[in-house]
Amino acid sequence: MPQPLFQMMPSPYPGYMPMPMPMPGTMPGGMPAGMPPGAIPGGLPGQMPMGMMPQGMSPQQFMQPPMMAPQAPAPQQLGNEKEELGEQLYPKIEEMIVHEYPDAPENSPSKITGMLLELNRDEILGLLSDPEKLHAKLSEAIDLLKSQTPQ
Q: What backbone phi and psi angles, to 5 degrees, belong to 150?
């Protein structure tokens, strides 16, 4: 049976809390003599003793690797994805402009496609799946282009 690393020494003064004292044969800090720094008694180096496990965690949860945050796509992947989304957006925008906005400024489909590609991926996917949302964004973009185009 392992020996305790600390023993409680009685206080010679009434009313004072006893201080834990290292057991004979231990180094300061309570480590057994001869143990390398960072070693855990009864465990592997770097291993946290069971008594040190965070409360509310089972040993299985404690041993799970930490959840990694999703990594942002590499710039090349992002560029390819934007290009693919643009290829899906452009024909829809062009068709809406031809049928509903014949007085739209020149090059509107490509300009508006570029504007919409500045949105985040989820917003673009939402526009592609909902024609009403796309129509509303298209109307906003055309108004903006008209306001910046000299008459």
A: -65, 140
Give 3-state DSSP helix, strand, coil % of the chain, rounded to 5.
45, 5, 50
Instruction: Please tell me which residue, 62 or 121, carries the higher pLDDT value.
Output: 121
141: phi > 0 → left, psi -120 to 50 → alpha, else beta; which?
Answer: alpha
Residue 92 burial class via C-beta count within 10 angstroms: exposed 0-12, middle 13-18, buried 19 and up:
middle
Q: Which CATH class is domain 75-148?
A: mainly alpha
Which range in 12-26, 27-41, 52-66, 99-113 is most confidently predicted, on average pLDDT?
Answer: 99-113
pLDDT(144) > 70: yes
Mark residue 130 as left, alpha or beta (left: phi above 0; alpha: psi -120 to 50; beta: remaining): beta
